[in-house]
Amino acid sequence: MTGRTIASHDPDLAQTITDMAAACHRLALAEERIHLAHRADNASHLVPHAVAHAGAIRDTIATRASRLNVKPFGLRLIIEEHERLRIKQGRRPTMEQLERAVEAAADQLARRAQADEAHQYEAELHARRSRQMADASVNAVEYLRASA
Q1: Alpha-carbon distance values, 56 to 12, 60, 67, 107 (Å)
Q2: Distance between CA atoms of 50 and 46, rounded to whole angstroms?
Q3: How far apart are the C-alpha atoms of 37 and 50, rounded to whole Å?
Q4: What is the 3-state secondary structure (H, E, C) of the chain?
Q5: Alpha-carbon distance 143 to 140, whole Å?
Q6: What is the pLDDT of residue 38?
Q7: Whether 65 contacts 74, CB under 8 Å
């Protein structure tokens, strides 16, 4: 790959990026709407509609991703990196540039997942210790009441 455009390398991917960029943007907005509906007071009636709307967009992206034999989030990542590079450079990126950008983003996501798993393990450990201490303190109170 020496400066080849995405369209010359993989026409299906180029067309998918073009077609699904708007869908990915709409999905990001729909996910934000779900988040806001969950947090808002008296907006619980909006949640089912927002979830259904986001689900429909996810299905559209998943259908397109399956044609390329890529997972839906992988397609979203490709499109997001393509858009980021397009805005940064002022033109469409080459296949090489897109590959490097997606690889860097995937590496960053892997490191974040590893850190999140470590934090989750630590939080579960603290929760388990807290439950044990709470049980022990209840037991201690019962013992003192029985002795008194």
Answers
A1: 22, 6, 17, 29
A2: 6
A3: 8
A4: CCCCEHHHHCHHHHHHHHHHHHHHHHHHHHHHHHHHHHHCCCCHHHHHHHHHHHHHHHHHHHHHHHHHCCCHHHHHHHHHHHHHHHHHHCCCCEHHHHHHHHHHHHHHHHHHHHHHHHHHHHHHHHHHHHHHHHHHHHHHHHHHHHHC
A5: 5
A6: 82
A7: yes
* Structure tokens belonging to residue 44: 């619980």
The pLDDT-based confidence of 44 (bands split at 50, 70, 90) is confident
Read off φ and ψ for residue 70, nearest 5 degrees. Answer: -130, 150
pTM for the whole structure: 0.76
